[in-house]
Amino acid sequence: MKPLAKCLMIALSALLALTMFLPTASADKLSDLEKKQQEIQQKQSELNSGIQQKTNEISQNQSTLEKIIAKIRELDNQIIETQTKIDVAQAEIDQTKIEIDELRKSIEELERKIAEREELLKERARAIQLSGGSVDYIDVLLGANSFVDFIDRFSAVNILIEADREIMREQAADKKLLAEQKAEVETKLAEQEAKKAELVNLKNSLDAQKNEQAQLEKDLKAEQARLANEKSSLQAEHAKTMNINADLEKKIGAEQARLAEIARKAEQERLAKEAAARKAEAQRQAAASASAPASTVTQASVSSKAGSSTFILPSTGRFTSGFGGRDIGAGAESHLGMDIANSPGTPIVAAASGMVSYAGNMGGYGNVVILTHSINGQTHATVYGHMSSINVSVGQSVGQGQQVGGMGNTGRSTGTHLHFEIHVGPWNGARSNAVNPAPYVR
Question: What's the rounded Cα separation, in Å, for the pair 320 and 317?
C-alpha cells in the first residue's frame, strides 16, 4: 500500500471508530426539538394570520359602525328638523282653527243678516200677494194731490225700489262672501292637515330607519366584542407559543452547543490521529532512500490540504444569486446565502467535516441538510437547501467532500439549484448569524 493511502486509511479508521461512540440519540433529540420548533413556528404563523384577520374584521366593522353612527346622527337631525316642521304645521293649524272660530262668528252674523233679509223679503212678498199680486208704483204717483205731493211720492217710490235692490244686492254679496269664507277656511285647514299628515309619515319613516340603524349598531357592537374576545384569545395563545418557542430556542441552543463540542473533540481527535500518522510517515520516509522525500512531501501536502478545516464549494455549477438583498418576484427580501445551479441530482458535498444536526424537509428550504462544525474552536453551521435527495441522517459524522445529497428544486425554489449558507455559531431559526459564504469557500 502506498504511504499516502496508508496514512489516509489510518485517519479514516480512527474517525470511523470515533463515530461509533457519538451519541446519535442526542442528535435525534436535536432533530425532534427542531421539528417541534418548526411546528410551533408554523402555529405562530397561523395565529398571526388569525390575529391579523380578526384585526382586519374589527377595522372593517369599525368603519361600518362609524358609518352607521353617522347615519343615525343624520337621521336624528332629520327627525328633529321634521318634528320642528310638524310643530310649525300644528301651530299653523291651531292658528287656522282660531281664525275659523273668529270666522264662525262672522259667518253667524252673515247668516243672521241673510235670515233677516229673507224674512223682510218674505214680508214684502206677502204684502204684494195681499194687494192683488203686484205693487203699481204708477198709481201711487198719479194719486198725488199736488206737484209737491208728486215729488214726495216719487222720492218715496225711488227709495222703496232702491231699498229692494239694495236688499237683493246685499243678500247676494253676503251669500257669496259666506261661501268664499267657508271654502277658504276649509281649503286652508285641509291643506294644513294634509301637510301635517305628510310630515308625520316622514317622521314615522325616519323613526323606523333610526330604529333599524340602531339595531345594526347594536349587532355590530356585539360582533366587535366577539371579535375582540377571539383576538384576545389568539393573542394569549400566541404569547404561550412565544414562550414555548423561547424555551425550545434555549434547548436547541444547548443541544447544538453540546453537539458542536462533540464535533470539536472529534475534529481534534481526527487531527491528532492524522498528525501522528504524518509523523510516523515522515519518520519512515527519513529512513528511506534520498529520492523518496520530494514525492512524499508533495503527497503529504495534498493529504494535509484535503483534511483541512477550510470550507470548500459544496457543488459545481453556475452562481445564480449571491448573499444580500434581492427580488425574485415576491418583493424585496434578504438572501442569506449563495445559489449554485446545475442539473437535477448533481452531487452536493459537505463544505467541511462535521456532524449532521438536521436532515429532512423544512418549509421554504425544501429538503435540507444542516451540518455543525468546529473550526479552530469556533462553532459553525452550514445549510444545504432545495435538495432532491438526502444521503445522510441526523447524528452522522461526515468528512469534508463527502456527499450529503443531490441538487433539486424542493421548497420555495424557482429552479434546480443548491442554496448554501454559512453561519458563524450554531444554526438558529432567526438565522441572524448568517454570513456571506463567498469569502469562506475556496
Answer: 9
The Cα–Cα gap between 349 and 404 comes to: 5
The domain in which residue 317 lies consists of 310-442
Cβ 181 vs Cβ 103: under 8 Å: yes
Count how many domains the chain has: 2
For the record, the C-alpha cell of 108 comes out as 253667524
- Which pTM was predicted? 0.42
Greater confidence (24 vs 344) lies with 344
DSSP states of 127-176 as a string?
HHHHTTS---HHHHHHT-SSHHHHHHHHHHHHHHHHHHHHHHHHHHHHHH
Residue 323 CA, distance from chain mean position: 34
Residue 164, pLDDT above cutoff 70: no
Q: Tell me which DSSP letter residue 311 carries.
A: B
One domain, residues 374 and 437: yes
pLDDT digits (tens, 9 = 90+) for 215-254: 888 887 888 888 888 888 888 888 888 888 778 777 777 7
262 and 383 part of one domain: no
Short-list 378, 397, 357, 385, CA closest to 256: 357
C-alpha dist (Å) from residue 270 to 43, 311, 331, 371 = 42, 17, 46, 17
Residue where one domain finishes, among candidates 259, 291, 307: 307
Q: Which of 220-229, 251-260, 265-274, 294-303 has the highest mean pLDDT?
A: 220-229
350 with 266, same domain: the answer is no
Report the SS3 class of residue 48. helix
CATH number where 132 lies: 1.10.287
